[in-house]
Amino acid sequence: MSKTVDSPIIALFEDRPKQGMVYQLNLSVYLDARVVFVSSLKELSGALAGPEGVQLAIVRENFKGRSIADQVADLLLPKGIPLITLGGKERDGVVVVEDGSVKPMLQAAAKILSITAQKMVEKVRPDLFEIA
Asked: Which of 12, 8, 2, 3 is nearest to 83 (CA)?
């Protein structure tokens, strides 16, 4: 399925290849999103500066052994870009998904991006999906 310019772009902080693939596949299939993997605030800034920007970011509270969610929030929230953290503490403008499982993360992302269940059902999907 080719993504269109209407597809939301989601920046995903993920350094675990298998988990990243699971998140990417689900975000792509259910939300028709384009996923950009980032592993630093510098890479996130680069994605934000791109021609299409980023409409949502998802980050684990602890990334590469340190807490990074607050730094990501400090970068995104002033720009009006929503953030989902997998774990961590509640904060204005940040949606916290406690266990990091796919379904609650997808539900939160769909709500933020105003993608209804009806829209998800109506999407045309191929029988096979490319996985890197």
From this structure: 12
Angle in degrees, CA 77, 15, 83, rounded to 5: 15
Rounded (5°) CA angle 51-56-81:
80
Q: What is the largest CA-CA distance in the chain?
A: 40
The number of residues in the chain equals 132
Nearest-angstrom CA–CA distance, 36 and 54: 9
Phi, psi of 62 (to 5 degrees): -110, 115
Q: What is the DSSP letter of 13?
A: E
Task: Please write the tens of the pLDDT for every residue from 24-56.
Answer: 999 988 898 999 999 999 999 999 998 889 999
- Residue 82 to residues 11, 47, 50, 65, Cα–Cα distance (Å): 11, 14, 17, 23
pTM attached to this predicted model: 0.86
CB 30 within 8 A of CB 121: no
SS3 category, 119? helix
**Which residue in the block uniquely carries the two structure tokens 């890479």?**
43
